[in-house]
Amino acid sequence: MAPGEDNPWDYTVSSSERRGRRTLGAGLPVSTSTTPVPGRNENFAVDVAPGQTPVDAPCGDPHPAIAEPPPPVADEKGRLDKVVFGISAALALAFVAWGFLAPSNLGSASGSALTWIESNLGWLFVLLASAFVVFVLWLAVSRYGRIPLGRDDEAPEFRTVSWVAMMFSAGMGIGLMFYGVSEPLSHYVSPPPRTVGAETPEAVQTAMATTLFHWTLHPWAIYAVVGLAIAYGTFRRGRRQLISSAFAPLFGERRTEGPAGKLIDVLAIFATLFGSAASLGLGALQIGSGMEILGWAGDVGNGVLVAIIAVLTAAFVASAVSGVAKGIQWLSNINMVLAVVLAVFVFVVGPTVFILNLLPTAIGSYFADLAEMAARTEAVGGDATAAWLRGWTVFYWAWWISWTPFVGVFIARISRGRTIRQFVSGVLLVPSVVTLVWFVIFGGAGIAAQRDGVDVAGQATAEGQLFGVLGQFPLATVMTVVVMALVAIFFVSGADAASIVMGSLSEGGTLAPSRRTVVFWGAVMGAVAAVMLLVGGDEALTGLQNLTIIAALPFALVMVGLAVALAKDVRSDPMMLRHTVAAEAVEQAVVEGITRHGDDFVLVVEPAPDTAGNGVGDTGAARTPVAAVRRRTENRGRGVADVGSPVPGDRSD
To answer: Given 3.40.1800, 3.40.50, 1.10.3470, 1.20.1740, which CATH number is that of 90-565?
Structure first.
């Protein structure tokens, strides 16, 4: 008997019989099982029968709830986007020329722009950083956390150890080496305004809490927003690996490929260029400091720093053209081993007991002060707080935002096959724990030395304070060489990822950009790093910070749009559509069963009689029309296929 014929055992719930229950679509016929249930006085079984027309749309597209993700466009060989590459390259080369020909003029212009940003928009960086933490945690713990970044059955592309090592090396590397000792020590001898006294027991807590605030959950949440948006769009939706493509849920595919989309990709390239160049500058400063300590060079000036950048730029270009699997993965694994060796050495020969005591103190202080630190602005501290924020919190948030295009795209590239929950757990929690341990070991060693009368903070620059701490231990020379090797490899691996990402953005999102494009962006990145150091003059670090904040502002607004687009995208994911339909159908079945039979019923899904297709779970031809199902899924005021009818002989009818 076909659905819709006069079948006494088919039952369609009318609108009046639904008693106001929320449903998804008009009632549809169902069949019932006649299989008796032992031990029951009344038998109740439900079968959801298919509709009379195929679920495939007229064009042949499958229903969105069962559609397989298309092959990622990024897997295809890309062609140079002349508009994106041309505009980005022209502006970058103009900046380099300006910096080399008139560094003081560029420094003055950037200083004026920075003053305006800090005076009017510092609050924006503070607010967005915390908002991104809440957003990615919500995605992870919500039902959307089960969504895979790829096909439903796709396995992760990289082993977990290599996955963590690669994203950690690309996302933090040089910064950990540069600030591992200097930031906790700086906050200890000069705490944030309106907090605690300098070099007091309370200052130890404040120093560690502030450092962890800048380096753990917040920066990795910023990375995760971009990484998730790109990974989901590329591997789940088959879009191009472009920042602009992630805006498709908001603007549509055609507009994201138009002028607005190209502008977004140009902004992403510029943020990547300046953020990664700032890191290269930090690495050059620290290597130069190590050369001074080892006696390999005298007073390291800008000429030596530019030479260091040139040598390492050549190294990371060579690594970049070898590809992710050969280059970055190999370098990242080496760096992870060297970093562990260095950390264990400092922990064992340094103030071991003090470091162990500092670990729980740092964790407790961080969570105790988190809300206050996240809300700190110049509104309550005046000029002193504004100056402190400019050098620390606002700079960090801008730095992380400027890194997000390349770190986000890179971790998206290596996260194929993982679920959203796994992605957030790996990207947010694992690096945060490693960062916590790193800063407790190195920051604790620096603070302990300062408390014991060794003026590490006063005798060395920020880039040299790590070497100052190592100088208190045995094998100081050997460890200094290890640090320089670590910084150099972090330099190469981070810049390696950045040059590949900029090449990808220049070639339509391909995962394998051409060598010429990668080499071009690698060379330009090194040149921009040199310019940023020259603009800072004697205060090279200030020049790096100022230009980073300026370059990050436009992309901060882009990130807001990315978060909104991602939230909209996951709501219509095939897995979520199936979950919605299944939950509504089962809920209605249970309600109908209880209404008609109390708690004495069972639900059975089985082939419906005299139909071309099968019941729930079947992917045959005879199903509800795709247009109708879409309306039922999206308009929650309509009904879904009905449930529940008595089996023959049921005494309740």
So the answer is: 1.20.1740
CA distance 317 to 496: 7
CA distance 612 to 253: 37
- Identify whether the C-beta of residue 274 lies closer than 8 Å to the C-beta of residue 403: no
Nearest to 439 by CA among 279, 199, 626, 207: 207
95-146 pLDDT, tens digit each? 889 888 888 888 788 878 887 887 788 889 999 999 999 999 999 999 999 9
By three-state DSSP, how is residue 234 classified? Answer: helix
Q: How many CB atoms lie within 10 A of CB 260?
A: 12
Query: C-alpha distances in angstroms, 538 versus 275, 308, 389, 534?
Result: 21, 17, 21, 8
What whole-number distance in Å separates Cα of residue 364 and Cα of residue 371? Answer: 13
Structure-token pair, residue 150: 């790829």
Q: What is the pLDDT of residues 554-574, one digit of tens each?
A: 889 999 999 999 999 999 888
Check: CB of residue 54 under 8 Å from CB of residue 622: yes
d(CA 416, CA 148): 8
Count of positions (residues) in the chain: 653
Q: What are phi and psi of 44, to 5 degrees?
A: -140, 120
What is the distance between the alpha carbons of residues 475 and 560, in angstroms, rounded to a whole number? 48
Model-level pTM?
Answer: 0.77
* Token pair in block for residue 99: 């910096």
Neighbours of 466 (CB within 10 A): 30
Q: Check: CB of residue 23 under 8 Å from CB of residue 588.
A: yes
Question: How far apart are alpha carbons 269 and 281 in whole angstroms?
Answer: 18
